[in-house]
Amino acid sequence: MKLSHYFLPTLKETPAEAQIASHRLMLRAGLVNQETSGIYTWLPLGLKVLENIQKIVCEEQDRIGCHKVLMPTIQPAELWKKSGRYEAYGKEMLRITDRHDREMLYGPTNEEVITDVVAQYVKSYRALPLVLYQIQWKFRDEIRPRFGVMRGREFLMKDGYSFDLTVESATETYKKIYEAYLRTFNRMGLTAIPVRADTGAIGGNLSHEFQIVAPTGESTIYYDVQFDTLTPEQMTFDRASTLYAAADEMHKPEDCSVPVGQLKEARGIEIGHIFYFGTKYSEPLGAKVTTQDGKTIPLEMGSYGIGVSRLVGAIIEASHDDKGIIWPEAVAPFKIGLINLKAGDTKADTLAEGLYTQLRTAGIDVLYDDRDERAGTKFADMDLIGLPWQVVIGNKTIDTGMVEIKYRKTGDKQDVSLDKVIELVR
Amino acid sequence: MKLSHYFLPTLKETPAEAQIASHRLMLRAGLVNQETSGIYTWLPLGLKVLENIQKIVCEEQDRIGCHKVLMPTIQPAELWKKSGRYEAYGKEMLRITDRHDREMLYGPTNEEVITDVVAQYVKSYRALPLVLYQIQWKFRDEIRPRFGVMRGREFLMKDGYSFDLTVESATETYKKIYEAYLRTFNRMGLTAIPVRADTGAIGGNLSHEFQIVAPTGESTIYYDVQFDTLTPEQMTFDRASTLYAAADEMHKPEDCSVPVGQLKEARGIEIGHIFYFGTKYSEPLGAKVTTQDGKTIPLEMGSYGIGVSRLVGAIIEASHDDKGIIWPEAVAPFKIGLINLKAGDTKADTLAEGLYTQLRTAGIDVLYDDRDERAGTKFADMDLIGLPWQVVIGNKTIDTGMVEIKYRKTGDKQDVSLDKVIELVR
Questions:
Q1: Which residues, in sequence order, are CB contacts of A403 under 8 Å at separation 6+?
Q2: Is A154's CB within 8 Å of B41's CB?
Q3: What average pLDDT does the structure give for chain B?
Q4: Based on the structure, what is the number of domains in chain B?
Q5: Claim to verify: residue A176 and residue A63 sit in the same structural domain
Q6: Residues A293-311: pLDDT tens digits?
Q7: What residues make up the domain containing B361?
C-alpha cells in the first residue's frame, strides 16, 4: 500500500479526552475515530489489526472443532424473559421498540439466542458435544464509557457456547477451550494468566478470566510467580489451574496457600472470560436431548468470551513506548514500513518502487511511505504506527545499494544490501 | 469437515411460511434460522457462503484502490439531523434512546457517518480521489419483512462512498466502481444487468441498479437484448451504459429507442445500487477541501451498495432445481461432498478417510458424509445443500477402487479411480 493513496489520518496532538496510552495511540495513529461516547469507526489501519485478531481467534476455535455461526445483533425480548434476564440485566441493556411496538434489544451476550437455536435442532445425544461460536458486535450501554475501545459501548466479541450431555464431558470441553484461549493469546504475543473468577451476570459454578498484566489494568490480580516460568506448552489446564491465581473479588489472603514471597500482585486487563453454568439456560429454554437410555435431559452448557475489539487496546497497553505502538508481528497491520527519504528523486523512487514490488511479490504486506514529507515526519509516523520492521531508502541506497533496516521493538538498526531485505525480514 | 460432527440441521418438510424457492431452500438446507420477523441467525453452512461472497466483494473493491473501514451499527441522531434525513427517513429507521436519553439509531445506510469522518480528516485535494467502503450489518424496519434474507430487517451490506474534487473525476470513479461491480457479480456466477434507476431516498443525479433476472424478482426491468450477447470483458461502462436498460419506474416506452423485438422484459432481483449525488451530503456536513488554487470547495460524492446477505438468496433464486440448491463454485460452502454409502464398513471407512485426508491436504474444502444414514437420505441431503461435486464411495469402490463422481449442476456422472479424483475436480 502506498501511503500517498492510503487513508491514514495520524494526529500530531494528543487528544485531550484520552486518559490511557492505548486510547491516545489509537486516535493518534489513525486506527479509530470516535462517533459518540463509546462508539467508534474503525479506520483502515485499525481494521486490519482487528481482522488479524479475528483470524487468529477463528483458527484456534476451528482447530478444536468449534463451529462458526452468526447471530443477529437485534434480538426479540421474549427469549430473555424466558431466561429471567430481561429485567435482571438493567440499564446496560439497550432496549428497543420496533415499528409494531414489539420489545427488542441489542444483544449484550447471546446465551438465550444460541440455546434456543440448539433447542430447536439438537434432539439426540449423538450430536454432542457441540460448540458454536461467533464474532459479532455487542452493545452494553455503559454509564461512563472510557479508555477508548477498552470500555466502549458497541464492541466486537467472540462468544462461544458449549453443549454437552454430562458434567464430565462439559468439564472436558471447558478445559479444551481454556487451553485454546491460552494458545490464541500466545499467538498474539500476549502472556495471559487464567485467574479464578466470579461468575457474575452469566451465573454458574466454574469460571476463569484471562488477564494480561499492564499498569493500566482495571483490576488487581494475585498469582503464583510460577506462572512466569511456564512455557506455552506447559500451560495446560491441569497444570495451570492448580497454581493459585485470583481476581481481587475472589482473592482471600487467609485461604491462599502460596507463600507471600511467591505471590505476585499486579494490575490486569481482562481479555477473555469463560463460564461453566450447567443447565441454567437449557432448562428454561428447553434445550434437551434424548440419552442412549431414552431419557430426556437438559444440556450442560458453558460460555466463552474473548474481547476482540478490546484486545486491540490491550495489546497496545502491553506493547508500546514513548514513540508509539509496537505491534506483535502476528497482529501487525503491515509487516514492513518502507520509507523513501528522497521521494521525488528519480533514482530513489526507482529503487523504492523496485523493492516495494519485490516485497509484495513475495507476499509480504508493506506500507510504502512515498509521500513528499520531511524525514522527521516520516520516521515519527512510522514509529507511531508501530510496524515490526522499517526499511529506509535514502542517499546511501543511491550511492551504495544499502538500505537501513530497523526492528521497531528493539530499535536495532543494520545496513543490508537491497537484495538481502526479504531474507532478513522473513 | 465430517458431517457427523457438523452442525447442519436440514429439514425434510418445507416450512409453511416460505413463499419463494430461496427462502424455502435456505431453511431446509440449514443455512439460517429465523429469530423473529426479518431477523436471522446464520448457521455454519450459510455463514460459509456469506463469507465467500464477502471475500469476493472485498477483493474487487481492494483491486480498484478502495479502502476498507468499519462503521458502528449504532449512530448518533445528530448527524442525520444535519443532513436533513432524520425526519425524512420515516418508520423504516430503527430509532433508539440510550440510558442518558440521547437519540440514536441503527444505521440503515452510512452517508452521514462517513462524510463526517472525511470532513474531519481530509483537508486537501491531494488526498483525492478517495473511496472508503465497509461490510457491516444494517437495519431497516420493513413493515412486512418477507422472502427470508431477500427482504429482511437486519441485513449485511457492502456500502462504499467516493470523494472527488471535480464532477469529471467523480464520474470516472463512478464508472470504475460500476465495472468492478460487474466483475464482482460475474465472479459469483451471476449475469447482472445495470439498469438506469431512480435515486430515491439517497438523492442525486445518476444511478444504476444491478439486477439479475429471476422469475421471483420484485420489479420489472426492460433491457436491450444485446446485453445477453456481451462477454464480461465487453461490459465496460462506456459500452453497457449506452444500451437501453431501465427499471419499471424509469421505463418510458415512448422514449425507448430500442425496437420492440429487441427489447426484453423480465423480472429482476436488485443486488446492487450505485449513486452519484454531488455535494448533497458534503455541503451540510462540511466535507470540504482546499484546491490547488487555494479555494475551499465541497467534495463530489457517490455511494455504492451491494446486498451481501441478499445475494445468498438471489444466487439461490438464479441457481436451483427441484432437488435443492446448485451453488456456483466461487461461493459454494464446500467444493466437494464425499458420501460414504457403507459407513461402518472397515474397508469403506478406510478408503473414504484416505480420500478425505488426501483432498484436504490438497487444500480442497470437503464435507464428508460419514453418518450412519440410508443412501437415499445422504443423496437427498447432498443434492439439497448443492455442493458443486459429489463423490460416492460404495461397494464398487471396495471391489474395484472406482468412485462415482457427480457434477451437481448438470447431473452428469462418471466413474473414476480413487487416485484421479483430485485431478478431475480441480
A1: A355, A391, A392, A393, A396, A397, A415, A416, A417, A418, A421
A2: no
A3: 95
A4: 2
A5: yes
A6: 999 999 999 999 999 999 9
A7: 334-425
Measured CA to CA, the distance from residue A266 to residue B403 in angstroms comes to: 62
Assess whether A418 and A296 both reside in one domain.
Answer: no
Q: Does B5 touch chain A (CB under 8 A)?
A: yes
Contact A69 B44 (CB under 8 A): yes
This prediction's pTM: 0.97
- Picking from A70, A110, A372 by the largest number of B CB atoms within 10 A of its own CB, the best residue to mutate is A70
Tell me which chain B residues have a C-beta less than 8 angstroms from the C-beta of A104: 36
For residues B384 and A175, give the distance between their C-alpha atoms in angstroms, rounded to a whole number: 37
Q: Given A70, A104, A154, which is nearest B74 (Cβ)?
A: A154
Express each pLDDT in B230-251 by its tens digit: 888 899 999 998 899 998 888 9
Give pLDDT tens digits for B347-389. 999 999 999 999 999 999 999 999 999 999 999 999 999 999 9
**Rounded to a whole number, what is the distance in Å from the CA of B227 to chain A's nearest CA?**
35
- pLDDT tens readout for residues A17-65: 898 999 999 999 999 999 999 999 999 999 999 999 999 999 999 999 9
Enter the ipTM. Answer: 0.96
CATH code for the domain in which residue A410 is found: 3.40.50.800
On whether both B302 and B199 belong to a single domain, the answer is: yes
In angstroms, the CA A282 to CA A285 distance is 5
**Which residue among B39, B41, B65 sits closest to A5, beta carbon to beta carbon?**
B65
Judge whether B402 is closer than 8 Å to chain A, CB to CB: no
Pick the last residue of a domain from A279, A298, A321: A321
A99/B76 touch (CB, cutoff 8 Å), yes or no: no
Nearest C-alpha neighbor of A155 from the set A163, A147, A166: A147
Residue keyed to cell 536495532: A412
CB contact under 8 A, A35 and B141: no
Interface check for B73 against chain A (CB to CB < 8 A): the answer is yes
Cell 479424483, located at residue: B421
Q: Are A269 and A217 in contact (CB under 8 A)?
A: yes
